[in-house]
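Researcher: I'd like a structural prediction for the single chain below. Treat it as a standalone chain; there are no partners to consider.
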Amino acid sequence: MGVFNMVDLRAGLARGQRLIGLDPGSKTIGVALSDVSLMLASPYGGLARAKLKANAAEINAMATREGAAGLVVGLPLGMDGSFGPAAQAAKDWAMALGEATGLPVALWDERLSSAAVNRAMIEADMTRKKRAASVDAAAAAYMLQSALDASRPPASLPSPCQDDSR
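Model: Treating it as a single chain, here is the predicted structure.
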């Protein structure tokens, strides 16, 4: 499968299909899952970073189990929006993952997602240990929610009321 833009990926889903959000780190891949209406992203868990074939099998099994038909992978752009080595590595991994799973993939800017999630967890007075256990999945949900919000089709306006009593 190729890499799609988020709007096209979303438009290609059948009704009731979900998206999986992935925040690939060097040790852990944060995983999030959308609801069937593609309105809300929730943390799902984390996968230990392993060989592509093993991670692809886990993600494919998850997609089958949860009714997901597409992947949104976090793209770590530079703070100035530049496409550096980390972004290239994430893009290459996403393309290979799409090929290995047979699922369409969209890349989404994930700048500051982990920082924002960590800040929120600190403000919620979570211990460092609890934060470490859940930050990857929460960052994936933060990134996926951003992608869902930005790709939401525009709401159709109601037709003007017509007075047919004349």
